[in-house]
Amino acid sequence: xxFKLNNRFKSISGFVLAIGLFFAVPSFxxxxxxxxxxxxxxxxxxxxxAATGANVVDSATTAKTEVAASADASTTKVDAAKxxxxxxxxxxxxxxxxxxxxxxxxxxxxxxxxxxxxxxxTNKMNRRHNPLASNTFQASLLFIFLxxxxxxxxxxxxxxxxxxxxxxxxxxxxxxxxMFIITTVIxxxxxxxxHILLLTFTFIYRMKxxxxxxxxxxxxxxxxxxxxxxxxxxxVLVLFGFFTWRSITNVPEDLQKSALQIEVLGEQFAWSVxxxxxxxxxxxxxxxxxxxxxxxxxxFNDKNSWDDIQGSDIVIxxxxxxxxxxxxxDIIHSFYIPDFRVQINAVPGMTNxxxxxxTVTTEEMRERMNDYKYDYxxxxxxxxxxxxxxxxxxxxxxxxxxxxxxxxxxxxxxTEDLQKEFAAKDAKTPQLKDxxxxxxxxx
Amino acid sequence: MSSTVISHSAEHHxxxxxxxxxxxxxxxxxxxxxxMIAKQFLITGIxxxxxxxxxxxxxxxxxAWPDKEFPILEVFLGKWAAGGRIAPEFFLSLVTIHxxxxxxxxxxxxxxxxFSNLLIPYQIGARDMASPFMNMLSYxxxxxxxxxxxxxxxxxxxxxxxxxxxYPPLSAVPTAIAGSATGMTLWLVxxxxxxxxxxxxxxxxxxxxxxxRTKGMDLWKMPxxxxxxxxxxxxxxxxxxxxxxxxxxxxxDRSFGTSFYLSDLVVQGQILPNExxxxxxxxxxxxxxxxxxxxxxxxxxxxxxxxxxxxxSRKPIFGYHAMVYSLIGITVLSFIVWGHHMFVTGMNPFxxxxxxxxxxxxxxxxxxxxxxxxxxxxxxxxxxTPAMMFAIGxxxxxxxxxxxxxxxxxxxxxxxxxxxxxxxxxxxxxxxxASIFGMLCGVYHWYPKMFGRMMNTKLGYLHFWMTxxxxxxxxxxMHFMGIDGVPRRYYAFTEFAFMEKWVSVNMLITWAAIxxxxxxxxxxxxxxxxxxxGERAPQNPWNSNTLEWTTPVEHIHGNWPGEIPTVHRxxxxxxxxxxxxxxxxxxxxxxxxxxxxxxxxxxxxEEAERIQTEWDAQNKK
Lengths: 443, 621
Description:
CATH class of the largest domain in chain B: Mainly Alpha
CATH topology of the largest domain in chain B: Cytochrome C Oxidase, Chain A
Radius of gyration of chain A: 35 Å
Structural class of chain B: mainly alpha
CATH architecture of the largest domain in chain A: Sandwich
Low-confidence stretches of chain B: 1-19
CATH superfamily of the largest domain in chain B: Cytochrome c oxidase-like, subunit I domain
Shape of chain B: globular
Number of helices of chain A: 12
Strand content of chain A: 5-15%
Helix content of chain A: 55-70%
Number of strands of chain A: 10
Strand order of the largest sheet of chain A: 3-2-1-5-8
Order of helices and strands of chain B: HHHHHHHHEEHHHHHHHHHHH
Distance between the termini of chain A: 95 Å
Distance between the termini of chain B: 46 Å
Strand order of the largest sheet of chain B: 1-2
Largest sheet of chain B: 2 strands, antiparallel
CATH architecture of the largest domain in chain B: Up-down Bundle
Mean pLDDT of chain B: 91
CATH class of the largest domain in chain A: Mainly Beta
Largest interface: A-B, 125 and 131 residues
Helix content of chain B: 55-70%
Low-confidence stretches of chain A: 25-83, 432-443
Structural class of chain A: alpha+beta
Oligomer: heterodimer
Order of helices and strands of chain A: HHHHHHHHEEEEEEEEHEEHHH
Number of helices of chain B: 19
Number of domains of chain A: 3
């Protein structure tokens, strides 16, 4: 039964390879580059040849197919660029080549598998078979994996960690960083120790001839220890984290008021920034008042809004507490500045707050990073649609003087057009006449 | 009571021989037999897993080569990959459906559905589930839900694309994203059916475990797998209905103009009339399921590996009671930690602090489980079957993924890590990889029970190593992207200067994902080939103690040909000193193992203790 099936399987795979060859022939002459793939293919030939003589012809043809495939891959790109509308037939061919390549790899794997089983069978016949050989082999592989794993962790920590880490540039961010490092040290220690134990146990206590496991159903002392120790460590982390969290989110009311207030509005797929202007108070916003000329939906009946300033970027003074009011116009976005360790969602229908104090100006950061183009950036971190991946706003930290200078150059939200619109509306309601006068005097 | 009735009917069948010819439809399609339903769940789950895996490879290709064209994609995906490049909205659809299918259809239904159905009747000694009809209904609702979910790829506006968490307003307003039109409706319908399926299944599991245990099988003699399935079913029964309520309210918002989740919206310049709703409400409802859901996903995996690690270490599971209590602890705590998904959503920060405390407490039972696994391996006599390899892989993932939970559960650290690749790395290791490894471990271990044949071990090892190394290569570097502040669900890393350095890492990840993905072919081939051509399995291939291995290899209606065996001992009597073999099945009475009995085995039965002491005095000098 299985013999018959094997034959059928071989004939089918032979047929598939023949079809591949048929596709390959016309373009075979166009090979140019790709040394790597050719060597791979020849390796396949070598393995096949070593395995069974009969397979040589087949694998030689597949090697050819494969060379052709890679050669074609390089030509297709050009073709695809030339012809955008219609899909090049070459695309289909390439696809088939990759499928064939995969089948060749599968064949190689199958051949290796067969070789191993033949080896085992001969061992059995010669009565040299060790039934635990493969068991020991897997145990050794796991043990080798331990070192690969530890090496990988070290490499990743140093290489990727180096790429990733930048010190926080805010006051609360420094606290978060300290806690992050403490947590990293603890978790890395546990990660390394547990993996050493796990993978040496599996190696040392692999099944051996006449081996017997130690019957140990439980040991209350040791179980208590490894319940209590994690509990204590976690309690420390929890308390540390809890108080840090409270200190970040629970800002006393007088500090809330004395801070510089800035409102940021998220919408698909842009951010708008609103500074309070001279009065230090951000005017009301009413989404129902959104018009093409007033896309922000500012309620100009609230006089506080008349002097509100539109920021092209988020520019904030260094070492000064800033309280951000985060709102959304349409769906949920997230106000996220990685360098500042700042994140809060922008949720329609409610205002969220995040207050923090930046400590390093953009200029200083550029020097620190040794990258004169470096900028802080605020990005959207909550899935919000097709433009989600590019919803950003530059954040610039400057000195107090530079901040004032910059703010003076920014436009007001209450533009002349809007004032006219507003005045025209108010002309109908006489009791608000004086407000129009104020508008005029503002300019 | 009920078990006697069923056993009677089984004997009745038996006395008449094999005359009961079942038609193809009643045997393979609308089957009420728990073994067949388990296989149905498994194969559907595998199909969905492959589907979701292909989706993940598609978006990985986009992330690794954001500027390159792959004309072949246009062949398969048409307008969603016009010019050979995946469209941004379709990218979001891919991540959404990948997440949904993997979390719900593979790791919930595929895992619990398969192994609860297969093992609960087998391991507690029951003829079948409490309600075979409900069981069948559970599978078919799941099947229809799967079909609807996949069907959403064939609607004009595309599948749901608001992320698997479908936060409104994005998921509620079709003008915000095309996927929130028909695609989202199909998603919601599919999920309602899915939850119904899980609920029906869960009720069945719980009632079977509570009512239909064989003689002698008290709760403290149940294998840990059964404990895990039992507690998982309870978690599911209590949390899934909340998801339905969330989903139904969302359907109301979408279709009937209510404002449960919507307020103050100006979408694409259009002022929407909704007022007074709160998007945060949805998040509370969603995560009330969503967090227990990760334990629904991981607890069965832990149960399966407990069994496999003990069997293959030839050693009792260390701290059986501690394992059960930590599962119970996880079950209870899993209901009061959901807020840690919402630290930065604008939820009251004080509440965030409280959720942080409960979240970090849940690490204690998890740590106990990990340590107990290692203590089980210590001084064992370990046999590395492919199932055992996957179980060891699970322990590794559970630790390395669980540890990063200490970062994310900490509200202060979460500020900077929330919704970044750090989160992606964390949950893919601790619940994704760990529980898929638990599932694969279960498939390799119980395959002989399911199909009466053995899987090829060499292909199993190949599959293990490709998947294990692949998973670490894919997910480990992602932590560092998250630390750098790279958000998840970004279509391309090309728009930000600080992200450009990660494109090369993305290429490594994508290659690892592709190779690991192709490695699954080794499993698929092995699985389907062995069904028909695998080596025939012996009755108890792993020398295991639990009751399922006392049933004949050939599946029969009612599981045991004669009477259901009585249980005399706990399921972990491996390598008991004094016994001539290294395992003693649960159905072997103490009277047959006089040489290996301990006095405390008799749980205070004085008569038995007296007999044992006398025997010891005579035979042990």
